[in-house]
Amino acid sequence: MRPRNTIRTLAAAAVAVLAVGLAGCSANSSEADAAAASDAPFTTITAGKLTVGVPTFPPFVGIEDGAITGPDGEIITEIAAEYGLEIEAVPYEFSALIPAIQQGRVDVAIGSIFRTAERAKVVDFSDPLYIEPGGVISADGIDSVDDFADAKVGTIQGYNWVDDVQSVLGDNKLTLYASSAELQKDLEAGRIDVGIDSYGTAQYLYKDSDFQVKKLAADNRIAAATNPGQTAILLSKDNADLRDALDDVIAELHENGFIADALERAGLDPTAAETGEPRVL
Q1: Can you state the angle between helices 70-82 and 240-255, rounded to 10 degrees?
Q2: Which residue would you say has higher pLDDT here, 175 or 18?
Q3: Could you tell me if 85 and 49 lie in one domain?
Q4: Is 7 helix (H, G, I), strand (E, B) or coil?
Q5: CA angle, corner 58, sides to 55 and 64, nearest 5?
Q6: How many angstroms separate the Cα of 131 from the Cα of each of 24, 66, 170, 213, 278?
Q7: Does residue 279 sit within a domain?
Q8: Short-list 69, 52, 64, 60, CA closest to 197
Q9: What is the reported pLDDT for 164?
């Protein structure tokens, strides 16, 4: 199914033969053996391994018994397997992911992370994995700005739509939360009337509650929330070979339906895999 594997397999075999021939004169034979075990056309921090920065962000990603879960986990695991690499999953808070990439502590970072112009200044992106629109959480199933224009609304600090929502509602009607869990707590306690969160996150958090989750209806006043962001794998700007290798497999995972299926397995909308052309927010 992947004809490029034939080329990589032959190349890996040639590297293995060469490594054997040089074993007697190399002081780094263990590293050579690890490199020969994979057929990756790029370098990684540790030969034979792909070191991945992983936040806890269900249902998109997490770590259980050393394995990366969620659709992001399935995708990066498939990519690593394609190149014969072992995954080393390292837990991180979201705020520490980009510094970890810049400081060379991880090869890549995942976690339903948007491709944005601001992030593009300091890190590189893979091609898009899936889109993630804004979602409205309410008891009445509302989905438009006009429906909650006079309500007490909460959303997550740092989300790309915060400025737009504030401009519509005003600071006095919008409460910002550090996390989705804190927003959920206040919504369930009746301290706010409506929540705005990632659609997929809201689907996961409120699936067994009396609240309804709807995609935020298109509205030019809050375009940042209704023009869905594209998520991607983050990596260093200094590893174009890795970026190209990621994109190669991602294209195939879109084509064969793997990404859509991974989203569906997580209880998410499989049509979110229809990302369109790469763009940034």
Answers
A1: 110
A2: 175
A3: yes
A4: helix
A5: 70
A6: 51, 27, 28, 17, 11
A7: no
A8: 60
A9: 86
Q: What is the pLDDT of residue 168?
A: 86
Whole-prediction pTM: 0.78
Structural contact between residues 141 and 214, judged by C-beta atoms closer than 8 angstroms: yes
Q: How many CA atoms lie within 13 A of 144 on its CB side?
A: 4
Look-up of token digits 């909460």:
154
CA distance 174 to 61: 28
Give the CA diameter of the chain. 76
- Tokens standing for 102? 């810049």
Boundaries of domain holding 116 = 40-131+229-273
- With 0-12 CB in 10 A as exposed, 13-18 as middle and 19+ as buried, what is 168? middle
The mean-pLDDT minimum among 30-44, 139-153, 178-192, 232-246 falls in: 30-44
Average pLDDT, the chain: 86
Rg of the chain in Å (alpha carbons): 21
Six-digit token pair at 135? 């979602």
**Domain total for the chain?**
3
Within 10 angstroms of residue 18's Cβ, the number of other Cβ atoms is: 12
Note whether 86 and 159 are same-domain residues. Answer: no
Q: What is the pLDDT of residue 27?
A: 39
Question: Does the structure show a pLDDT above 50 at 185?
Answer: yes
Same domain for 120 and 58: yes
60-93 pLDDT tens trace: 999 999 899 999 999 999 999 999 999 999 999 9
Please state, in angstroms and as integers, the Cα–Cα distance from residue 124 to each residue in 46, 116, 275, following that order.
Answer: 20, 10, 18
CATH number of the domain that residue 220 is part of: 3.40.190.10
